[in-house]
Write a structure and sequence with these properties.
Blueprint (H helix, E strand, L loop, with lengths): L4 H18 L26 E4 L10 H16 L6 E4 L7 H10 L4 E5 L4 H10 L4 E5 L10 E5 L2 H15 L4 E6 L5 H17 L4 E6 L4 H4 L3 H13 L4 E5 L1 H12 L9 E6 L13 E7 L1 H14 L5 E4 L2 E3 L11 H16 L9
Parallel strand pairs: 1-2, 1-3, 3-4, 4-5, 5-11, 6-7, 6-8, 8-9, 9-10
Antiparallel strand pairs: 10-12
Length: 357
């Protein structure tokens, strides 16, 4: 019997469907281990977020760690699998572009680059890859690109609050700051705000501000220098010291925590995040921290990328002073009220830190 063309086509398609059903599905490509050093590609259509640190470790208990915690928190909120997020720790500044490219090649949707120094490499990659969203932490955008958001902060505001606190607590009339490099504008903003805030409560206060003398690649990963510089400031009579420089600043905090009078006559102030939660060794002296809220800022921007509402250009995160924790009872109510009034004045613009003027 001669079959019609339609009948023949039906038989062919049915046979083809049965053959395809019998074939095993291709194995999924394993996603990257978040502790490894290179990005792996995943299945098309997944939403994946990668992070490139500045020189230093992702668990620096400060800057890089705050950004990574933003990535992990956003992944949890979006229901992403652990394999959908990954970080690469930069070992050398010359590797910035290559580290970013690893995530581009692996098909990541959002790439977070942490630190002022990655700004140029981030913008180059963004121009070459307009379908990838880039979040540049501490990267001011002079040119607005639709797929780049510079997550920036008023570090001078939180520095100013830290200065008001330090100037009010000081009994010797000398305070200090142990800082990363002055080649990074946010570090300068922290310090200038700190000095201005201290002088707002004591015009005659002596502020010893010391920047790390080395290259950017060393300035934030030198706890020994931070400790030695903090000790020198203590020897010069400083009784409140601000540690603002990643692992370098952490070295300062831990040195002060072991000093005579720590928590009674000598105090320290952390930076970036609430370092009470990240540097427990500093508890004996850590009265507060000058925060820029990196973690929630990263979460907001990752969510916007996922929702198709990504804001190109500069995106301001919030700045604040961390709680006093175990030192709350020793902070006079008058000082707490002053800090609240100061915060309100910084927000509404009635208080000018002087930074950038």
């Amino acid at each position: 019997m001669k079959l019609s063309r339609i009948t023949t086509l039906v038989i062919f398609l049915t046979t083809l469907a049965l053959l395809l059903a019998a074939c095993p599905a291709p194995a999924a490509v394993p996603a990257a281990d978040t502790d490894a050093g290179a990005a792996d590609s995943g299945a098309a259509g997944e939403f994946k977020v990668g992070l490139v640190t500045d020189v230093g470790r992702v668990n620096d208990r400060s800057f890089n760690q705050s950004a990574w915690e933003g990535v992990t928190a956003s992944a949890e909120g979006l229901g992403l699998a652990e394999d959908d997020i990954k970080y690469i720790e930069t070992q050398d500044a010359k590797d910035y572009a290559d580290n970013i490219q690893q995530f581009v090649d692996a098909g990541y949707n959002v790439i977070v680059t942490v630190g002022f120094a990655l700004g140029d490499a981030t913008n180059v990659a963004a121009k070459e890859n307009p379908d990838v969203f880039f979040i540049g932490v501490d990267q001011f955008q002079g040119e607005t690109l639709p797929n780049v958001a510079g997550l920036i902060f008023n570090e001078d505001h939180s520095g100013y609050l830290a200065g008001v606190l330090a100037g009010s607590l000081s009994k010797t009339g000398t305070i200090a700051a142990v800082l990363g490099t002055d080649l990074v504008p946010p570090v300068v903003a922290f310090n200038e705000g700190y000095v201005a805030g201290a002088k707002s409560v004591n015009a005659d206060i002596n502020v010893i501000s010391t920047y790390h003398p080395g290259e950017i690649s060393q300035a934030f990963v030198d706890p020994e220098w931070g400790a030695a510089t903090a000790k020198q400031a203590l020897d010069q009579g400083a009784d409140v010291i601000f540690g603002a420089g990643g692992i370098t600043g952490n070295g300062a905090l831990q040195e002060i925590a072991t000093a005579d009078g720590a928590g009674e006559t000598v105090f320290c102030i952390g930076v970036d995040t609430d370092q009470w939660n990240t540097v427990p060794a500093a508890h004996p002296c850590l009265v507060s921290s000058a925060m820029k809220l990196i973690t929630p800022g990263v979460v907001e921007l990752v969510n916007m990328a996922n929702d198709g509402a990504f804001p190109g250009g500069n995106y301001f995160g919030k700045a604040d002073l961390a709680p006093f924790h175990d030192f709350d009872d020793m902070i006079p109510q008058e000082l707490k009220d002053l800090l609240e009034e100061t915060k309100a004045g910084l927000i509404d613009g009635s208080i000018d830190t002087g930074y950038g003027n």
